[in-house]
Amino acid sequence: MLTAETRKLATVVDAVGPGFIAAVDQLRARIGLNPAGRRQVFLCHAFCEVGATSAEVAFGQIRDFLVEHPDQVLLMSVEDDVSPDDTETALADGGLLDLVYSGPSGPPWPTLRQLIEQDRRVIVFGENDTDHLAWYRPQFKLLEETPYHFGSAAQLADASSCRANRGGSGKSLFLLNNWVDTTPAPRPSNADVVNAYETLLGRARRCEAERHRLPNLIAVDFYRRGDVLRVAATLNGV
Fold it and tell me: Distance (Å, rounded) from C-alpha 31 to C-alpha 191?
């Protein structure tokens, strides 16, 4: 997951280029050998030293949003580098665990209305180790996806961008990954291009035809750039 702090680095990366990344690598090498301070769980992406948010704080903010919007359902994908128990503790400390759905995995999945009526409006997936926890679902046993590394908008437009990746095929959920990778921080200018209505919808339709499955999950950088919500509405026939 990307933190707000990491996203703010996009303009810095554009300005200083590879030198910034090299400096971050040096920082990681220097401080990664002797970690200090209170042990806690953070949300970050790739270069955590330059942008991380307390998981407890972030989960609390998500809970506040869901309380204020009782008709919203959230699917959360955790790229987990901590234990399932640590993840559970962070969710509980943030007040979010009580809203997490712990029923059986699909198919069939509960409808959005059923989740809303049960007030279990968060479904949590983990990429690696979900262990024994009923609510923590093994992502790639239940979900298939496209590739997720694209160096340019042209690569997203290529036919190979729809090929099967983690999760293989035949799963009940299909994740469309749609962004240009500019590690350590994404660039809003790229999102303006690849999140545009015709571009994103065209790729979704192409992947639907190739994979014989509607993309019911679309992952993007900067969802407010482009026309992501309109694409989702079109795919849902709304």
Answer: 32
What tens digit of pLDDT does each residue of 168-223 get? 999 999 999 999 999 888 999 999 999 999 999 999 999 999 999 999 999 999 99
Q: Would you call 185 exposed, middle or buried from its count of C-beta atoms within 10 A (0-12, 13-18, 19+)?
A: buried
In sign, the C-alpha dihedral spanning 104, 139, 188, 10 is: positive
Structural tokens at position 44: 């970050």
| Residue with token string 């059923």 | 114
3-state SS record for 117-149: HHCCCEEEEECCCCCCCCCEEEHHHHEEECCCC
Question: Are 55 and 42 contacting, i.e. CB atoms less than 8 angstroms apart?
Answer: yes
Give the N- to C-terminal CA distance of the chain in Å, as an integer: 29
Which tokens belong to 93? 């400390």
> Peptide bond before 110: cis, by omega within 30 degrees of 0?
no
CA distance 43 to 131: 20
- Strands (DSSP E) contained in 51-204 are 53-54, 74-78, 122-126, 136-138, 143-145, 173-178
Cis peptide before 184 (omega within 30 of 0): yes
Answer whether residue 238 shows pLDDT above 70.
yes
